[in-house]
UniProtKB/TrEMBL annotation:
HAMAP family: Exonuc_7_S. It comes from Methylobacterium frigidaeris. The keyword Membrane does not apply. The lineage of its organism: Bacteria, Pseudomonadati, Pseudomonadota, Alphaproteobacteria, Hyphomicrobiales. This is Exodeoxyribonuclease 7 small subunit. The gene is xseB. InterPro entries: Exonuc_VII_S, Exonuc_VII_ssu_sf. Residues 1-24 are annotated as: Disordered. Signal peptide: none annotated.
Length: 96
């Protein structure tokens, strides 16, 4: 396990599990910590109490990452073209 993942895994136990503990985390850091949690849980050598605590932290991180992705998607816009083929403005990106 890399030092960064090990640090993220240890932080998962000590950091608050609620939204306040994730509010200031950038997407990349939250995802890195979440990956460390998944790895630790998959190894299966974590005591039950700690497993529950880091699972709850993982859920909070997952929600946080989903929120950040939704915000990013909302900011993406497509360029609209006028009749002459030149950029005329922007419109929300329709991903459906």
């Amino acid at each position: 396990m890399s030092a960064a993942r090990s640090d993220a895994s240890r932080a998962a136990v000590s950091a608050p599990a609620g939204p306040a503990g994730t509010a200031d985390l950038p997407f990349e850091k939250a995802l890195e910590e979440l990956e460390g949690i998944v790895q630790r849980l998959e190894q299966g050598n974590v005591p039950l109490d700690e497993s529950v605590a880091i699972y709850e932290r993982g859920e909070a991180l997952k929600r946080h990452c989903e929120t950040l992705l939704q915000r990013a998607e909302a900011r993406i816009q497509r360029i609209t073209l006028g009749a002459d083929g030149r950029a005329a403005g922007t419109a929300p990106l329709d991903v459906a």
